[in-house]
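Progress report, Aim 2. The chain analyzed during this reporting quarter is listed below.
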Amino acid sequence: MVAPSLDKITSFTPPQRTLMGPGPSNINPRVLSAMSLPVIGHLDPAFAGMMEELKVLLRYGFQTKNPLTYPISGPGSVGMENCFVNMVSPGDKVIVCRNGVFGGRMIENVERSRGIPVIIDDTWGEPVDPNKVEDALKKNPDARIVAFVHAETSTGCESDAKLLAQIAHKHDAMVIVDTVTSLGGCPVLVDEWELDAVYSGTQKCLSCAPGLSPVTFSERAVDYVTKRKDKVQSWFMDLNLILNYWGNTARTYHHTAPVNALYGLHEAMVMVKEEGLENAWARHTLHHQALKAGFDVLGLQFVVKEESRLPQMNLVTIPEGIDEAAVRQELLNEFNLEIGAGLGPLAGKVWRVGLMGYTAQKESVILCLSALGSVLARKGYAVNAGAAEAAALKVYAAQK
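Predicted structure tokens for the chain:
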């Protein structure tokens, strides 16, 4: 891309898109409005009160009573690194489950924390195999942690977090869990499943702007970190320091918090509370079912088996002879509709269609089916005009 001339640069106005890729999702207007409120100091008593409310709201979102539940100043990737740098000491053995891109990033984090990863690989599009985790823990009784992705964004596959945590705890290991794509879109039950260190993101099913990462740590995890004899390698993410800012009511300055972004997350979580978590989960499932009905009519096959399929992240195989990148480009240029490409071994083979947060609504589903059908028809793919949309509408009608 050629650098623009300085004298031609003016204020930026983004196009209006319908975001149905792997994230971010569209932001609810209430959240955008909240982010435009006047900035106040990050140690202002009014801001401190908002922080306390935000912690309560996030506990509701995670379904936990963990006192240390707060948003990290940075995207989900920072939440991931936060969990690993605090929980993994040099020489620690960590069982890492990899069934997609983000399990691979966990391995990288273990290595950078100078831990020893024991890697369990599963086929992309399939859940983590509990039997493999059990076998790995038996062969590595000194493993301290099991790390896995609950909802793998690169495949749209959900793993059984409750069962994997049970297996880990049976072998006296803690768990680190990625819920970036699952929080707010399907059940995440931190206390019931006894999860130890959990991170997520704001830009997906929470309908908030990118740039914050909600995390929650069990009392057992906090106890381990506070008793570490070595320093956590990251000053910014050291829980021992963060506890003095997010953990206590009498706060000590740690960093300049992203005040307006936190306003947005507060409003997003208020909206989650107003809708109710169970209703939010049901909404994502309903729109997934409608989208699936349309995709079935279009002849698009899902990659993940139904029992492990995420409603908020839909992977379908690309019809033979179709240029997948050209289709995505035409959807963006002509319909202002974004869908995602495949990653890793799925690159060029699948589309990733997100139904997350504010994007999970009937209008998005009908637009996607209509636009995709139109573009595919122009490419010579047999499409019965209007049939996919009709199938989706039939699903909606059945819910009334």
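The domain at 29-274 is CATH 3.40.640.10 (Aspartate Aminotransferase; domain 2). DSSP finds 14 helices and 13 strands in the chain. These observations will guide the mutagenesis work planned for the next reporting period.
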